[in-house]
Backbone:
């Protein structure tokens, strides 16, 4: 088989796999929307509406049709970019999500940069100093980050760094008196404030962002540290490490150029999954800090039974993880030529 033909078959198989995954995700999202105990009709018309009104809206929503027909309509609507209208806001759901999602991306991106920047070197340091005091201290540090409830650390952080020391901003993305002072074409407040030339708003947004990002980054670093330590211990026990030292390579070169280089592919997966978890799992932090992001949007709509919004949020989370897995596959080929 020629190389070009093999590559074509590989791409075709990947495309089929992605299409099957997306179809399964759509089916799962649809089933979740139908088995949830919330009644979308009551959420729309209220509890005091008459039975006649209820039945009329029930038919208008197509809930009287067979399940397979409802699913076909759902697929058609999704294919055309129609995810329905939010009961809570009265806006198209996709418009609401595009409005709130940049806040979560901004928070999660800074958090994963802090988490990976702290977790990777700590994991390497713990592995190199296995069973020494450095290893024990790092393992305790990671265990605390993994075990402490994020809502508890969030409230404690607000109490200490906002109320007591005054170092961090309070709730929201910036001080309330800056609201509406700059246009937000990107939705990323740090970028928009710089584009508008408002350093004061940039600093205010950074003060509000840094504390929740640090807390999420600490939780992510705990997971990353443990995984990096495990991967490095496995590599440091291999024979090629002994050979490298015998050949005269320094300890630093052996650790970073050889052992660490061989865990980069695994590390890509760990960081990608941690980032995806931050994007969809920052609900408690966004609630504690009144952060107007994706997690808070999902929670508020789930409480009132706004199934159009909930189903779209669930679908988006699945798409995020599919995209991150695809990105990981691409990066595998960059960092490990054997996977090409």
Residues:
């Amino acid at each position: 088989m020629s190389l070009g033909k093999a590559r074509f078959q590989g791409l075709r198989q990947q495309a089929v796999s992605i299409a099957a995954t997306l179809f399964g995700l759509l089916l799962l999202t649809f089933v979740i929307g139908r088995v949830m105990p919330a009644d979308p009709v009551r959420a729309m018309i209220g509890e005091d509406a008459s039975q006649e009104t209820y039945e009329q809206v029930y038919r208008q929503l197509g809930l009287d049709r067979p399940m397979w027909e409802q699913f076909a309509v759902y697929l058609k609507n999704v294919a055309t970019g129609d995810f329905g209208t939010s009961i809570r806001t009265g806006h198209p759901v996709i418009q609401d999500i595009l409005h709130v999602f940049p806040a979560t991306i901004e928070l999660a991106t800074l958090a994963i940069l802090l988490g990976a920047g702290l977790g990777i070197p700590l994991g390497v340091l713990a592995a190199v100093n296995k069973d020494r005091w450095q290893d024990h201290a790092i393992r305790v540090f990671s265990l605390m980050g993994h075990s402490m409830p994020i809502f508890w650390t969030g409230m404690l952080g607000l109490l200490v760094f906002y109320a007591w020391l005054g170092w961090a901003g309070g709730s929201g993305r910036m001080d309330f008196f800056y609201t509406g002072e700059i246009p937000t074409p990107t939705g990323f407040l740090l970028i928009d404030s710089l584009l508008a030339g408002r350093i004061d708003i940039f600093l205010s947004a950074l003060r509000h962002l840094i504390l929740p990002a640090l807390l999420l980054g600490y939780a992510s670093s705990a997971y990353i540290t443990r995984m990096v330590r495990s991967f490095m211990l496995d590599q440091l026990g291999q024979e090629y490490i002994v050979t490298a030292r015998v050949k005269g390579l320094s300890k630093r070169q052996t650790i970073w150029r050889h052992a660490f280089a061989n865990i980069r592919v695994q590390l890509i997966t760990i960081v990608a999954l941690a980032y995806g978890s931050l994007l969809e799992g920052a609900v408690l932090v966004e609630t504690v800090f009144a952060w107007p992001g994706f997690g808070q949007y999902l929670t508020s709509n789930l409480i009132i039974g706004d199934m159009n919004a909930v189903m779209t949020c669930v679908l988006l989370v699945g798409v995020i993880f599919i995209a991150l897995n695809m990105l990981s596959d691409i990066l595998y080929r960059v960092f490990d030529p054997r996977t090409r």
